[in-house]
Amino acid sequence: GTILMEAMLMGNSAVGSDADPKMVAGCEQNLAWLRQNCKIAPELESKIFRRSATELTHDIIATTLGGGSNLLVVTEPYLGPPLSTFPALAFLEKVLNELSALYLGFFKNIASWLPKGTSIVFIFPYWKKNNLEKVRSSERLVAKIESLGYIKTAFDPLQTTSLFYERSDQIVGREIMRFIKT
Questions:
Q1: 16 and 48 Cβ atoms separated by less than 8 Å
Q2: How many helices and strands (H and E) does the chain possess?
Q3: Do 86 and 171 form a contact (C-beta atoms < 8 A)?
Q4: pTM
Q5: For 44, left (φ over 0), alpha (ψ -120 to 50), or beta?
Q6: Phi/psi zone of residue 12: left (φ > 0), alpha (ψ -120 to 50 degrees), beta?
Q7: Residue 139 to residue 130: CA distance in whole angstroms
Q8: Cα torsion angle, 94, 139, 73, 56, sign
Q9: What is the pLDDT of residues 110-148, one digit of tens each?
Q10: Fewest CB atoms within 10 A around its CB: which of 13, 39, 45, 70?
Q11: Angle at Cα 120 formed by Cα 119 and Cα 122, nearest 5°?
Q12: CA-to-CA distance for 23 and 48, rounded, in angstroms?
Protein backbone atom coordinates (compact mmCIF):
# COMPACT_ATOMS: atom_id res chain seq x y z
CA GLY A 1 0.00 0.00 0.00
CA THR A 2 2.94 2.37 -0.28
CA ILE A 3 1.54 4.13 -3.34
CA LEU A 4 -1.90 4.53 -1.70
CA MET A 5 -0.32 5.88 1.48
CA GLU A 6 1.82 8.36 -0.46
CA ALA A 7 -1.23 9.53 -2.40
CA MET A 8 -3.13 10.16 0.82
CA LEU A 9 -0.18 11.96 2.43
CA MET A 10 -0.23 14.23 -0.64
CA GLY A 11 -3.93 15.01 -0.04
CA ASN A 12 -5.53 12.61 -2.54
CA SER A 13 -8.10 9.87 -2.24
CA ALA A 14 -6.73 6.50 -3.33
CA VAL A 15 -7.99 3.20 -4.68
CA GLY A 16 -5.90 0.07 -5.08
CA SER A 17 -6.22 -3.55 -6.01
CA ASP A 18 -4.27 -6.74 -5.63
CA ALA A 19 -5.14 -10.32 -6.49
CA ASP A 20 -3.30 -11.61 -3.39
CA PRO A 21 -5.49 -11.58 -0.24
CA LYS A 22 -2.40 -11.24 2.00
CA MET A 23 -1.38 -8.07 0.18
CA VAL A 24 -4.89 -6.64 0.49
CA ALA A 25 -4.99 -7.38 4.24
CA GLY A 26 -1.55 -5.84 4.75
CA CYS A 27 -2.55 -2.75 2.80
CA GLU A 28 -5.75 -2.36 4.85
CA GLN A 29 -3.69 -2.52 8.04
CA ASN A 30 -1.22 0.05 6.73
CA LEU A 31 -4.00 2.43 5.67
CA ALA A 32 -5.61 2.12 9.13
CA TRP A 33 -2.24 2.84 10.73
CA LEU A 34 -1.79 5.87 8.47
CA ARG A 35 -5.15 7.33 9.47
CA GLN A 36 -4.37 6.82 13.16
CA ASN A 37 -0.86 8.21 13.09
CA CYS A 38 -0.86 10.93 10.44
CA LYS A 39 -3.05 13.92 9.82
CA ILE A 40 -5.14 12.56 6.97
CA ALA A 41 -8.15 14.70 6.06
CA PRO A 42 -11.29 12.75 6.98
CA GLU A 43 -12.88 13.40 3.58
CA LEU A 44 -10.08 11.54 1.79
CA GLU A 45 -11.27 8.12 0.68
CA SER A 46 -9.16 5.00 0.51
CA LYS A 47 -10.08 1.52 -0.58
CA ILE A 48 -8.21 -1.62 -1.50
CA PHE A 49 -9.93 -4.38 -3.47
CA ARG A 50 -9.02 -8.01 -3.92
CA ARG A 51 -9.06 -8.03 -7.67
CA SER A 52 -6.63 -8.38 -10.53
CA ALA A 53 -5.71 -5.14 -12.25
CA THR A 54 -7.08 -6.69 -15.43
CA GLU A 55 -10.55 -6.74 -13.82
CA LEU A 56 -10.84 -3.19 -12.50
CA THR A 57 -13.94 -1.31 -13.62
CA HIS A 58 -14.97 2.31 -13.78
CA ASP A 59 -17.71 1.56 -11.23
CA ILE A 60 -15.16 0.50 -8.61
CA ILE A 61 -13.15 3.67 -9.09
CA ALA A 62 -16.14 6.02 -9.37
CA THR A 63 -17.89 4.60 -6.30
CA THR A 64 -14.84 5.09 -4.13
CA LEU A 65 -13.71 8.41 -5.54
CA GLY A 66 -17.08 10.06 -6.01
CA GLY A 67 -17.31 10.01 -9.77
CA GLY A 68 -13.78 9.06 -10.70
CA SER A 69 -12.84 12.38 -12.30
CA ASN A 70 -9.34 13.85 -12.11
CA LEU A 71 -7.74 10.44 -12.03
CA LEU A 72 -4.07 9.68 -11.91
CA VAL A 73 -3.10 6.03 -12.17
CA VAL A 74 0.14 5.01 -10.46
CA THR A 75 1.00 1.35 -10.22
CA GLU A 76 3.80 -0.98 -9.34
CA PRO A 77 2.48 -4.29 -10.61
CA TYR A 78 3.81 -7.74 -9.87
CA LEU A 79 7.43 -7.69 -11.10
CA GLY A 80 8.01 -11.43 -11.22
CA PRO A 81 9.59 -13.79 -8.72
CA PRO A 82 12.37 -12.65 -6.39
CA LEU A 83 15.80 -13.62 -7.74
CA SER A 84 19.24 -13.90 -6.18
CA THR A 85 21.08 -14.50 -9.48
CA PHE A 86 20.43 -13.64 -13.09
CA PRO A 87 18.05 -16.33 -14.38
CA ALA A 88 18.48 -18.69 -17.28
CA LEU A 89 17.21 -17.10 -20.48
CA ALA A 90 14.43 -19.73 -20.90
CA PHE A 91 13.12 -18.92 -17.40
CA LEU A 92 13.36 -15.19 -18.03
CA GLU A 93 11.44 -15.58 -21.30
CA LYS A 94 8.66 -17.42 -19.42
CA VAL A 95 8.50 -14.63 -16.82
CA LEU A 96 8.47 -11.97 -19.54
CA ASN A 97 5.57 -13.71 -21.32
CA GLU A 98 3.53 -13.95 -18.10
CA LEU A 99 4.19 -10.33 -17.14
CA SER A 100 3.46 -9.13 -20.68
CA ALA A 101 0.04 -10.79 -20.59
CA LEU A 102 -0.73 -9.22 -17.20
CA TYR A 103 0.47 -5.74 -18.15
CA LEU A 104 -1.24 -5.67 -21.54
CA GLY A 105 -4.41 -7.02 -19.93
CA PHE A 106 -4.33 -4.10 -17.49
CA PHE A 107 -3.84 -1.46 -20.19
CA LYS A 108 -6.48 -3.04 -22.42
CA ASN A 109 -8.98 -3.20 -19.55
CA ILE A 110 -8.67 0.42 -18.47
CA ALA A 111 -8.57 1.70 -22.07
CA SER A 112 -12.31 1.04 -22.36
CA TRP A 113 -13.28 3.39 -19.52
CA LEU A 114 -10.33 5.58 -18.52
CA PRO A 115 -10.98 9.25 -19.37
CA LYS A 116 -8.86 10.74 -22.17
CA GLY A 117 -5.95 12.75 -20.87
CA THR A 118 -5.46 10.58 -17.78
CA SER A 119 -1.84 9.98 -16.79
CA ILE A 120 -0.67 6.48 -15.99
CA VAL A 121 2.66 6.03 -14.22
CA PHE A 122 3.69 2.41 -14.65
CA ILE A 123 6.66 0.50 -13.30
CA PHE A 124 8.24 -2.15 -15.51
CA PRO A 125 10.84 -4.60 -14.21
CA TYR A 126 14.22 -5.06 -15.77
CA TRP A 127 16.86 -7.60 -14.94
CA LYS A 128 20.50 -6.66 -14.46
CA LYS A 129 22.94 -8.98 -16.15
CA ASN A 130 26.47 -8.66 -14.71
CA ASN A 131 25.54 -5.13 -13.55
CA LEU A 132 26.28 -3.97 -17.11
CA GLU A 133 23.38 -5.04 -19.32
CA LYS A 134 19.67 -4.54 -18.66
CA VAL A 135 17.02 -6.88 -19.99
CA ARG A 136 14.08 -4.46 -20.10
CA SER A 137 10.50 -5.75 -20.18
CA SER A 138 9.35 -2.38 -21.49
CA GLU A 139 11.14 -2.93 -24.81
CA ARG A 140 8.60 -5.56 -25.88
CA LEU A 141 5.57 -3.75 -24.46
CA VAL A 142 5.61 0.00 -25.13
CA ALA A 143 4.56 -0.21 -28.80
CA LYS A 144 1.74 -2.62 -27.89
CA ILE A 145 0.57 -0.32 -25.09
CA GLU A 146 0.62 2.67 -27.44
CA SER A 147 -1.48 0.69 -29.96
CA LEU A 148 -4.17 0.44 -27.25
CA GLY A 149 -4.58 4.24 -27.14
CA TYR A 150 -1.78 5.62 -24.96
CA ILE A 151 1.25 7.77 -25.65
CA LYS A 152 4.50 7.48 -23.72
CA THR A 153 5.39 10.94 -22.48
CA ALA A 154 8.28 12.61 -20.69
CA PHE A 155 8.40 13.42 -17.02
CA ASP A 156 8.46 17.20 -16.64
CA PRO A 157 10.80 18.96 -16.03
CA LEU A 158 13.22 16.05 -16.49
CA GLN A 159 12.50 15.63 -20.23
CA THR A 160 13.10 11.89 -20.02
CA THR A 161 10.60 9.11 -20.67
CA SER A 162 12.23 6.52 -18.40
CA LEU A 163 13.42 6.72 -14.83
CA PHE A 164 15.48 3.81 -13.50
CA TYR A 165 15.68 2.62 -9.91
CA GLU A 166 17.76 -0.25 -8.67
CA ARG A 167 19.64 -1.45 -5.65
CA SER A 168 23.16 -2.69 -6.20
CA ASP A 169 22.46 -5.98 -4.42
CA GLN A 170 19.33 -6.88 -6.40
CA ILE A 171 18.82 -8.49 -9.80
CA VAL A 172 15.46 -6.85 -10.57
CA GLY A 173 15.33 -3.09 -11.10
CA ARG A 174 12.43 -0.77 -11.90
CA GLU A 175 11.88 1.35 -14.99
CA ILE A 176 9.26 4.02 -14.39
CA MET A 177 7.33 5.36 -17.39
CA ARG A 178 4.44 7.75 -17.88
CA PHE A 179 1.66 7.27 -20.43
CA ILE A 180 -1.28 9.49 -21.35
CA LYS A 181 -4.63 8.01 -22.43
CA THR A 182 -5.51 9.41 -25.86
A1: yes
A2: 5, 8
A3: yes
A4: 0.89
A5: beta
A6: beta
A7: 19
A8: negative
A9: 998 888 999 999 999 999 988 778 999 999 999 999 999
A10: 39
A11: 150
A12: 10
